[in-house]
Description:
The protein has helices at residues 7-53, 157-197, 199-210, 231-274, 280-306, 318-335, 355-372, 424-434, 458-466; strands at 57-59, 65-67, 92-97, 103-106, 124-128, 137-144, 149-156, 314-317, 339-343, 350-353, 378-383, 388-393, 438-442, 449-453, 455-456. The chain folds into 3 domains: 1-197, no CATH class; 209-306, Helix Hairpins; 311-466, Histidine kinase-like ATPase, C-terminal domain (Heat Shock Protein 90, 2-Layer Sandwich). Helix content is 48%, strand content 16%. By secondary structure, it is α+β, with helices and mostly antiparallel strands. 19% of the residues are buried.
Amino acid sequence: MRRAYRLDARLAVVVTAISALTLVGAGTILSLEFTGDQFAMEERGLSTQVEEWVGALRRTPGGTVVFDRPAETWSDIDPPYTGLLSGPRPIYGYTVTDATGRVLDRSDANAPAGHPGPADPEPVLLSGPSLDGAGPLLIAELYVPELDVWLRLARSRSDVAALTNTFFAQSLEELGWAALAMLVVMVMTAVGIVRFSLAGLRRVAAQAERITFDNLGHQRLDGSPAPAEVQPLIVAVNQALDSIRAGAVAQRDFSIHAAHELRTPLADLKLRLEGLASDPDRDAAMQDIDAMARLIEQLLQVARLDGGTAFSLQSLHLGETVAEVLQEAAPRLVSAGWSIEADGLDAPVQVIGDPTLIGLILRNLLDNVRRHTPTGSNVKISISSEGTLLFADTGPGLPPDFPSFRFARFVRGDDDARSGSGLGLSICETAMRRMKGTFSAEPTVSGAAFRMTFSLDQRTQHDELKAPS
């Protein structure tokens, strides 16, 4: 069978993958945007720089035009750059030329070569080599009419790639942990949203756990708190429950009708046999008819228990209820030679139960005593304050391999079909289950013992404790 998956775990994986792809995609787009716009940024920056540095040009007393380099601190510049105009890898280079292209002043590195352009008062951007042959260079030149010279400021194109790498290295160092934290928060948020969204589905699952064969007639799944995606499944489950309920009702009705139809011919047959002279065949036939009549009666009991017949669970005095059943059923057993003892009938034990079901249990147990224990055996019924009823006899007891609880139907202690149908203990267990109690066989040295545990009426017990002494 394929192992079921957890939706929150699967969603966490999906959200993690999507978030990682989103971050990678955003970084790629940012890189492309930065690479595409880097030259435009450099051009704007270079134009601004050449306009700013024009003021550093001056004419010496000897008539030569020179450029007063601005002060710079190399330590404030991050690698791979070491200075603006000086150092192992300066950012900028410059030349001061006249109209003929003669160099009047120049930097040590990145000094642009070439003849200046027209005398334009606005910065002109172009590309070209450096005086030492390195390049290419991005050049911004500006004509200075007062000095009749051109200031040409250049920056290496290769430095743009270095600037890009530096930018992303610093961004990753500064924003990497923030991106990781954001990814974790996104995953936790997604899982939390899924868990919150599935809370209604968990409530529906709890409803399904409470559905049993006993409450199948009125218990159904309420799909209102569940997501819309599972509504068709809830509707299908309710329809299946309706079909099961209809089948159970049909089966119960058939059993009840069949049992009722069989009662009359069995009664007529028994009357005819009673009119015959006693002989072994006639006595055996009478026993068979009695066994069949008892089987039919038990089938009716099973049909009522399984068919959802309404039993009124109520608070009742356990001892008084048992006494009423014994008063009606015990005399026939006692007159036939068995003895019955009852203990604890006066104890104020209030339990939740149904008088009809308690009577059904005790009559089946007494009938088992009559059928499976020898005449003269003793039966003892005792009630404890914990809400338990113990039924014990001094007969031969149950077989060693007989189950102690969850008694299956049509399981007999011996192979004699006339001794019983194998339904009595199953009826007792089912009846106790209908009353929210338990029915089990108790281990004994001799004989058989059965313990019935009822649910105590906590309200009555609480009132008794509060009552003044």
